[in-house]
Amino acid sequence: MNWVQALSDYRMYLQIERGLSENSILNYALDIKSFQAFLSQIKSEEGPLDCSRESVQKFIYETAKVMSPHTQARRIAGLRSFFDYLIFESYRKTNPTDLIETPKLGRKLPDVLQIAEIDLLMDALDLGHPQGHRNRAILETLYGSGLRVSELTQLSLSNLFFTEDMIRVTGKGNKQRLVPMGTQSKKYLKHYIYEVRSVQKIDPNDQDIVFLNRNGRALTRQMIFTMIKGLVNKTGIQKQIGPHTFRHSFATHLLENGADLRTIQLLMGHESITTTEVYTHLDRHHLKKVMEQYHPRNAN
């Protein structure tokens, strides 16, 4: 089995067996292609079934010189997953990444917007611009329902339920969840869909996609990043802000206002509540309030 065949089979496995998104599959594939390119660079003829631990270690050592610890950790995880797949399919008996240590990563807390900053970004939108109401609907939906940017770009009209005020979201691994539609997001979604989108010329392949560009095609993740970056520059907010910042703010503000972690986990579509627990580190005021209310030593 050569690298091309192994990678093709692995991609099929990730798609069908693990149900990963195309973006996740692409990242996994890039890790394998980078390793394959490294082997070519050092003139090694090792294939996926006989490559050695030494070759993997050399690859990790060389890439560590130019990559952050987070990128190194992701790359090692990608290679480990690939060789685990080959073992699962009985192509190999050992995984050459087994004794390779992953860099120790500290927990980096995400930036969160204050409510006043969210209002500032919303107010900075020019609703007179042809894409103004669309962009307002995008931000309101990101913040009002806590969607990932990939979930937003794939959002379809058939998954918006205005009568029930609900959105059906397809998340990681094609897992679906229902999330409530915020009052403001509902208002701007309806205006965009019925007053703006309805008069657009739409590409036949994207008839059911909610958010479209000026050519009637589905928006890309990069378009949304660019739009938000322009707003941040316009308002002068000194934070690292992207689409995910609105999702983090959604979860943090729910926690601050008394929502329990289990509910936030369901709304966010987190598989493990451990992922959701990062938001308790963002809201020290909430933690202090819970401690004062429930710890027996704090009773008056």
Care to describe what's here?
The protein is mostly helical. It has two domains: 3-88, Orthogonal Bundle (DNA polymerase, domain 1); 115-290, Orthogonal Bundle (hpI Integrase, Chain A). Helices cover 55% and strands 4% of the residues. It has helices spanning 3-16, 22-41, 53-64, 69-88, 115-123, 132-145, 149-153, 183-196, 221-235, 243-256, 261-268, 273-276, 278-282, 284-294; strands at residues 160-161, 166-170, 176-180. A three-stranded antiparallel sheet has the order 1-2-3, with no helix packed on it. Strand 1 and strand 2 form a beta hairpin. It is globular, with a radius of gyration of 23 Å.
Give the key terms:
300 residues, mainly alpha, hpI Integrase, Chain A, 14 helices
**Do you know the CATH architecture of the largest domain?**
Orthogonal Bundle
Assigned CATH class of the largest domain: Mainly Alpha
**Chain-averaged pLDDT:** 87
Strand order within the widest sheet? 1-2-3
* Superfamily (CATH H level) name of the largest domain: Intergrase catalytic core
* CA(first)-CA(last) distance: 72 Å
